[in-house]
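The passage that follows is intended for readers who have already worked through the single-chain material. We present the inputs for a multi-component assembly, then the predicted structure in tokenized form, and finally a short commentary. You are encouraged to pause after the input and sketch how you expect the pieces to fit together before reading on.
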Amino acid sequence: MRQHIADDVIRFDGVTKIYQAGTPAALADVTLTVAAGEVAAVMGPSGSGKSTLLNLVAGLDKPTSGTVTVAGLRIDTLGESALARFRARHVGIIFQFFNLLDDLTVADNVLLPAQLAGASRRAARARAAELLDRLGIADHRDHYPARLSGGQRQRVAIARALVNSPELLLADEPTGALDTATGQEIGRLLRELNAAGQTLVLVTHDPALAQRYAARTLRLVDGHLVPANAAVLT
Amino acid sequence: MSWGGSVRTASGGPFRHKVQAFVLGMVLLVSTASATLGLALLAASNGPFDHAFDAQRGAHVAVTVNPARATPAELAATSHAAGVTAAAGPFTEATVQTQFGGQPFGQLTLAGRSAPGGPVDDLVLNSGHWPDGPGQVVLDDNFNGGPGGGGPGLGSVLAVTGVAGKPSLTVVGFANSITNTADGWVAPAEMTALRAPGTAPALQMLYRFASAGSDAQIRADVAAIAKVLPAGSVAGADSWLSAQTQADGNGAIMEPFVVAFALIGLAMAVLIVGNVVSGAVIAGYHRIGVLKSIGLTPAQVVVVYLSRIGWPALAGCVLGVVAGNVLAVPVLHQSAGAYGVGSQQVPLWASVAAPLGMLALTVLAALGPAIRAGRLSAVEAIAAGRAPRTGRGYAVHRLAATLRLPRPVGLGLAAPFARPARTLVTLAAVAFGATAVIFAIGLHSSLARAQAGQRLSATVPVQVQQQAPGAGPNQLPTAAQFAAMTAALRAQPGTAHDVSVYEAQVKVAGATENVNAYAFGGDSSWTGYSLISGSWPQATGEVAVNTAFLNATGLAVGGTATVNTGTAQVTARITGEVFQPSGEPRIYGSAQTLPGVATSQNFWQVDVGLRPGTSPAAYMSGLNSALGGSSPFLAVGPDGGQFYTIASELIGLLSLMVAIAAGLGVLNTVLMTTRDRVHDLGVFKSLGMRPGQVLTMVVCWVVVPAVLAGAIAAPVAVALNTATVHAMAGTAHTGVPASFTQVFGPLRLAVLALAALVIAVAGALLPASWAARARPAVALRAE
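Having made your guess, compare it with the prediction:
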């Protein structure tokens, strides 16, 4: 059973991210919250700051100013080791292009975050087996990612993201590299996870995906959070 | 757009790929420096004396002239004598008795020279300055004993005895004369005060001749000088040939290991440069694929590659040759000391050949991948620029996953199998470095054993020698002085053994030259001579001999030698072959076995063995006090260790350089792998891999190649050490006891093999820490 440290899983207070001095902010003074058990979609055109926002939530990058609190932890002040522990324990990430490690089998890909977090061998294997079974890819556990279809790879990526039972699942264009039918299949899977209590932040270009699966849409334009119903070219 | 403009745009210019250009430049810098040094060492080992003799305009003959018989004008006229090509002098010459630290320092031949240079015998001032005032002396570098060497150093003061006022000379420098024309040099005005009363004045003239390659030519040259001077003017003449023989002997001993290190350094430089350049080219395939898709021709692709690596390679080579020359100064100073020549320089051809060779190698290494890139289609080039081929190393990853290892360790250990070619290069670089380190340590041990065996320093730490005139005829010690010395010696606490040793020239049937005979006046079984084969003589009628003796007589251990000592002819059975490197044949036996040798005229020294725990220095000090200032005898430590000291220092320096180059080779391959796998590193980090785990994983990339390299390097180094020691011994006219090459016990060798791991981990740490520090978002974007 996951332990929720606070009601809001994500809290941004006046977060700004500038990659290079003199260039426009990738995120400008963003304040937002995402509650536990919520599915929030982040939408916006290319270059609007969606990936930057995701990176800051995942602790993959640090803000230029403002505070970022995730799963009750103020992560913008953490060092790299503490951020790595935070990612291993509290966050699962699903990438558009899966980012599976080609030289590891499906089972080893799924096991890896648990092993890095120091989970016991027996517990990690049991959890991985459960996830592979639940996601319908148990038969492929000894295969290498290169032999799998796009949908199967994304299922492996989801299993890997969930293996440490994180409070928060981040999905960056999870259906962007998939055909329509497979995309819908993955979408249904994410909805099932949310139904089971998983907090989910979904970054997408696809309004239909956001509309179908997210309870709330956060819209970014040029690094600024705008009202969800504002007219934006995507 | 023009052809050249396209290429410039496509390559991005020399400063576009800063990190890659920096690494390439650094590797070429180190490799060129190492190649320059390697070539310089090879050149230095080739006829070192002859090169130094030419460079220092060595004197073919040093003539001692009686100034009472020849005027300055007559001496000046000798420069036009038949065959003379250059002349220097006259320099006032005097032989003086000296003391250092209150103890006799021996007899020194001093010459008065106003400057070290000149048309003949251009002295090399290795340290300090030339005498510029009274009471100053520059000593021959062979006397340099400071700091910590026990002998005089800069600032030391020598007292000249037997001269009115007992003048003091402060050592202000150390210099080398290639033909040892003097033991020291002072300002010309100083010489008057240094001449002992009643001794004849002498002048030194130095000459170079058109022909002076043999003793006969030297005799003819000296006769030509004598002919233009008044009769009786020439009091003596020293030929350069004896210095040449001695120096060539030293040089020949050094050559095998100097050549071994030079070849290791050159081979590694070639390997590392080839790897870096081809890696840099392959890393650019993706970009080239993109550029080809927008119209770059195959020829332009080749030029793009070559121009991309050309500038950093050129910069690295130029800086490398400068660094090589700077680095060569201390190394060549050491090798010059070991060769017994004044100084050695990097030859001009080495400074040209090293950078040109490395540039040529760079172009060759780049040409293959560049031509391949030119021929590939755009799509193929883009694909070829991606990470390792699918399938490589998967089985090893699977195996590593089943092992109960921390996951970063398993991932790191399996990683090299994805890039077998690169792994092989890493393995080879580390193996070269580890071989050099193990070889150096082994050679150091072998030389230490040879030094101890030759000097008997472990068993005979003290020797009592005659260092001042005795009270008997011909300045020999009297029987009473011998008896007093023996009594003082045996009364001294700490004396365990003592035996008098006598030396004389004897004839041995079968040997065309005289043989040096050493007769022991008592029990010598404890003296600890190292035996190559057989045993030390136990009874009368038995002798031990050195290798040169066996070679000269054609006899073997177990054979019988017929020895004529001048007073008796005896036969003796050869029981053992001792390690005493020398071209001269030697025979060792008891005074009874070699009758007539053990006389006071032939007294050489008393070998003294000490009780365990006795300090040789304290013992010598106590014994010398007991002997008193009036005794002609002095207790001294074993000498003859300078060659070993210099050789050991040189070996240490060379192995350190090779190890550093190997570490840089590893750094480069790990850096290339890190760049290849930067996206994977981002993924690992996004999954929660901590910086410490990243560091561990990246360091583990080199562990498997390093362990294999260690396993290869250990037996190779043992074989190399054995071969080198035998080659060195061969040039020193001696065999070697097996114990000199058996310096690696299994445990020691296993520990030494870890040098490979140390080199590899040291090389990997820097890129590993870069990888550990990289922000995950940056690493993921780097795709």
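Commentary: The beta strands of chain A are 8-17, 27-35, 39-43, 65-70, 73-74, 91-94, 168-172, 199-204, 216-221, 224-226. The mean pLDDT of chain A is 87. How closely did your sketch match?
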